[in-house]
Amino acid sequence: MKIELWSDFACPFCYIGKKRFEKALSKFDHKDEVEVIYKAYQLNPMAPKTMTGTAYESFAKSHGMSVDQAKQRFNMFTENAKTVGLVYNYDIIQMTNTFDAHRLAKWANTLGKEAVLTDRLMHAYFSEGKNLADFATLVGLAKEVGLDETIAKNVLDTNQFEEEVKNQQSEARQIGVQGVPFFVVNRKYGISGAQQEEYFFGALEQIWAEDHPIASLDDQDEGHVCTDESCSI
Prior knowledge:
It is a single chain. By secondary structure, this protein is an alpha+beta fold. It folds into two domains: 8-174, Glutaredoxin (3-Layer(aba) Sandwich); 182-232, no CATH class. 48% of the residues lie in helices and 10% in strands.
């Protein structure tokens, strides 16, 4: 089973959805036969490399709302994050451009390290207030997960993996991705959003059963329905 996951390091529900999906996958009997492929997506391609003001002010301005409304929205994100053991700190979050972080992740993928770097980048953004557009910060985070800092710096200082990131973003538009996280299973089924762990598990079970009708006939969960476009309860 191949699962492609479009997400952005600066997306609050991408981090939450990633954790819920991983918990569901850990309980799936056929998890060793599942390949997860990370795909680049940017919620705000026009985000600056350095944020001015606070995250509350930046979000309020870009979404046409008051600072108080932005704080309420962030509180909702924070409470959702707590359900999967994540700590979001919007007092220090730096809402900056993630394009170069995506380039670095694509390099990490060539070394089998994209999953671990993705997790580190998301934690750095939401919990530690790191600027993911800052090259020195990115190099340091790459080093923390066991990647060569000299090569990481060279990747960032050049345009390496730029086309790969752009192609994956273009691919998202072509298949109709309008928000993230977005999971594509076997290029047949789409799952949108940070669904609950039970939903992800049910979808995995149902899709596996459909692809292995004889071996999995007795395990099918009729509570979930999958079409050619998506899975739903």
